[in-house]
Each structure stands twice: as structure tokens, then as C-alpha cells.
Inverse folding.
């Protein structure tokens, strides 16, 4: 099973694809998402979003905030990237 991941900024798509695991910094602490996780909606704090691909490769994105939504193995992250340009 895989997660479908969409990471977007207000003005562009930052990354989209499939992953086996996603971690993100919420304002209440770090959250890790695997396929089958309970649905969530949470506010993100500053930190690093980590997307683990099927081959074990990681995609890392520094953010200053945003929000994360998870339902039916779909992760949507609206993020304010550190490199906002």
C-alpha cells in the first residue's frame, strides 16, 4: 500500500507522488503517517516535512507553517516553504 502525497504552496506545487511514510511538524508535535492511519486535519509548525519513497529515498522540505490533511491514504499538505521564492 502507498500514500498519495500532494505538497503545495499558495502559488505552486512543491511535490506530488507516492510514498510509504510521511512525517510532519504539527504545532502539537511531530506526526507520522502510514497507510491506513486515522483521518486527521492539523496545523503545521516550523520544521521539516519528510516523505519516504518506496525505494527508501527521502524527500525533505523545510517549512515555516501550513496545514496537513489525511484521509483514505491521501496526504495533502499546504505549506509555507522556507524558500518562498
Amino acid at each position: 500500500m502507498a500514500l498519495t502525497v500532494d505538497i503545495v504552496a499558495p502559488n505552486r506545487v512543491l511535490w506530488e507522488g507516492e510514498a510509504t511514510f510521511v512525517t510532519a511538524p504539527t504545532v502539537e508535535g511531530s506526526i507520522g503517517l502510514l497507510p491506513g492511519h486515522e483521518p486527521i486535519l492539523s496545523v503545521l509548525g516550523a520544521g521539516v516535512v519528510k516523505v519516504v519513497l518506496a525505494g527508501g529515498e527521502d524527500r525533505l522540505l523545510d517549512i515555516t507553517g501550513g496545514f496537513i490533511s489525511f484521509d483514505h491514504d491521501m496526504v495533502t499538505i499546504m505549506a509555507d516553504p522556507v524558500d518562498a521564492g
Notes: The chain has a mean pLDDT of 95. The CA atoms of residues 43 and 67 lie 4 Å apart. Residues 3-81 form a domain with the ATP Synthase; domain 1 fold (CATH 2.60.15.10).
